[in-house]
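hiii, so i know i said id send this last week but things got crazy w the move. better late than never?? heres the sequnce for the chain we talked about at the cafe, plus the structure i predicted for it. fair warning i was half asleep when i ran it
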Amino acid sequence: MCQVDLSLLQRLTKPEGKVDVVLDTDTYNEIDDQFALAYLLCQEDKLNLKAVCAAPFHNAKSTGPADGMEKSFQEIHHILELMDKQEYAGQVYRGSVCWLKDEHTPVLSDAAQKLADLAVEYSSEKPLYIVAIGAITNVASAILLRPEIIDRIVIVWLGGNAHDWPHNREFNCQQDVAAARVIFNSGAALVQLPCIGVVSSFTTCAGELEMFLRGKNRLCDYLTDIVERDGAAESPYRTWTRVIWDVTAVAWLLDGDFMEDRLVPSPIPQYDHHYSFDPDRHFIRYVYHINRDALFEDLFEKLTSLK
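okay and structure toks below
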């Protein structure tokens, strides 16, 4: 059984009071990062946003990780404009333009440097919380730049699949397995929200969005439009639902009966897109259930409260 690190366990406990947060996001990749960014910005009594980092991605919406990062950078500013939160515009940073080439060499970027420089100002008693909802290249690069920050941060990452899922071919993880291995092997305090098998239950549909969001404000109309566009386009069924994955990572930091979690030894992401396990490894916190209705009620309440 792994040796208990009391300082690590303390950082893996849900924080009390207001905390400083960085959001690392591939905002243009899907439609859920926009919800997560907006939800975070609606929590100013609990979360003090220090920076937003644009993460790379590569799928049909980008020509490669650099293009995905740049489109995410622009989409972050679009959400700030829709929310009339342009005061945060100077805290948005461009991230990595490629994946890690190995587990030892950082990808230099404004985002990675900002993360490293910011995190070194914190302590194990008062850590910086990094909510990561894309490929974790920027965060891994910050750790490789300044390894001493591992005792000064808490990483809340939506990435990988459930530990009992037959494979780990999950978008955020499989794009940069080297970066995921840096995070899981670093010993940093890590809260993992697995995608398929756990967060995949956090779905909504057109009827719900029309009922609760449509017509409330510009942001709500935009969020409804992009979910309905992508949901209808990507499903063969009229009865489609869409996962709003990334909201759950923000919600872990909040008060509320939003999810269930437990401590487990850190798994090891492998390059063949599976986990391996060693019971003697350090602990991480593993979310295994999302209280879907409770979280959506709070999300919709916060989004519709905007003028």
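btw The CA atoms of residues 192 and 252 lie 10 Å apart. thought thatd interest u
miss u guys!!
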